[in-house]
Amino acid sequence: xxGRRWTLSVAVGALLLATAGCGGGDDDxxxxxxxxxxxxxxxVTVLAAASLTESFxxxxxxxxxxxxxxxxxxxxxxSSQLAQQITAGAPADVFAAASPATMKTVTDAxxxxxxxxxxxxxxxxxxxxKGDPKGITGLADLTKPDTKVALCxxxxxxxxxxKTALDAAGSALTPVTLEQDVKQALSKVRLGEVDAALVxxxxxxxAAADVDGIEFPESAGAVNDYPIVALKQAPNSAGAAxxxxxxxxxxxxxVLVEAGFQAP
Length: 264
Description:
alpha/beta; 5-stranded mixed sheet
């Protein structure tokens, strides 16, 4: 009997070891790099286009909730500015840009850990004060001599898109100010310093209590794709990969579409 009990104990132990070993296979129910509970630890630093502020703040909170103990830290600014920071060696895990052109600054420098992936796109609208007191209906109205307009600087994705749209409309527009990111351009409208600004649809929607967003047909030819990538020198490479995977997933996509972004 003692021999049989020993044999049974060994068999059970072997079965437990085999079961534990199977946990790492393709059907492993444990957390993975998709942002499921416990997948990553530590801090994840994300540099993201200013137009992603509201959506990524919510997505970051959802990612933290799915990964107890993880902290996501964001730096939001113009994509061109962020790209320069990355190539200058700023420590970060993930870069989310508002255009392929600004992402190219990072990939040309070899600072990407993988190929960037487009996760959403965005389109311009004309932001005006609530109720549209100037009666602005299209780009032609922005060229009127008594209309003050804010644009993003041309090196910034929203500025490059604005130039494309204005060129398509044949509009010779002289802005009273050029801003370094879309939030700054929008703030000029909210503060009453300008009559209108060309901003992303998502930004106008986020500020709907203060501004109206006027659609115009030329914006269809100036849509910006948003790529995201984990960075080569990421202090938390596992966290970077997990956050990118989460942004590309269905839960984050739903948040972005609700904010007015377009699925790629």
